[in-house]
Amino acid sequence: MLGIGTLSRLAREVSRDVGAALERDPAARGATPAEILATWPGVQALLSHRIAHALYDAGVPLLPRTIAAITRAVSGIEIHPAAEIGQDFFIDHGMGVVIGETALVGDRVTLYQGVTLGGTGFATGKRHPTVEDNVTIGSGAKLLGPITIGHGSKIGANSVVINDVPPNSTVVGNPGHPVRVDGRAPEGPDADWIHLPDPVADAIRGLSARIVVLERQLAEHGGEHPGAKVRPLRPVRGPNPAGG
User: Which of 117, 126, 140, 143 has its C-alpha lying 20 to 30 A from 94's C-alpha?
Assistant: First the structure.
């Protein structure tokens, strides 16, 4: 049932959510906590969800889903009242974010706009992702099914993830390919989406290099080859947009 303890817990959670926005959103520089609450849709949606979730846990009928529906209409962010979300959660921009009923989200997780924590098929029971602590999920990423995203991982923008992701990994592509990053992941959100590793490009680069070797060997043995030049893949260069 709802009580003083529940209200006190809600107040602490909301305070930490506002703190997460102030810490991780560069646009929040100079903003006050009151301004964050009044104008940040991600924070507003999360505040509504925390209230709806408390009511859902207390067994209150209709009202939790009504709050979720109104929040979706106002903010463009849909979070099922049953979804469990940890502390220091931050949704940047937020439009189009969907978090399903059985989703579990850990502490210090960051989501960008268009992220889906969705299910697959019509199965009952646990059917949405579990996102562990310190995970960053880029714009438009789709995480589908009862998968687990390991601690400290980073999901690249527009990736489609349908399998478990090991801790401290980066995932890119469709379907998503997990790539270890130096054996570890930096703690806290990392918004450098330009310099993500690309396993598909690495594979193509390896094949191109192998073709060059084979053509050279063929020429050395007196064979003929078209002599076409293989254009090397251009690595991404430029400043880190995250400022690091």
Answer: 126
In residues, how long is the chain?
A: 244
Of 127, 154, 180, which marks where a domain is finished?
Answer: 180
Find out whether 165 and 153 touch, Cβ atoms under 8 Å.
yes
- Is beta strand 84-85 parallel, antiparallel or unpaired with respect to 148-149? unpaired
Same domain, 211 and 118: no
For residues 106 and 227, membership in a common domain is answered with no
- What domain range includes position 35? 4-180
Residue 228: burial class (beta carbons within 10 Å; 0-12, 13-18, 19+): exposed
Cβ neighbours of residue 79 under 8 Å, at least 6 residues apart? 45, 46, 49, 52, 68, 71, 85, 97, 98, 99
pLDDT at 223 over 70: no
DSSP secondary structure letter of residue 39: H
pTM (2 d.p.): 0.75
Which residues, in sequence order, are bridge partners of residue 165? 149
The pLDDT tens digits for 185-194 are 445 555 565 5
Closest CA to 112 of 135, 83, 128: 135
Same domain? For 142 and 214 the reply is no
Q: Are residues 131 and 14 in the same domain?
A: yes
| Residue 242 clears pLDDT 60, i.e. is over it | no
Q: How many domains, the chain?
A: 2
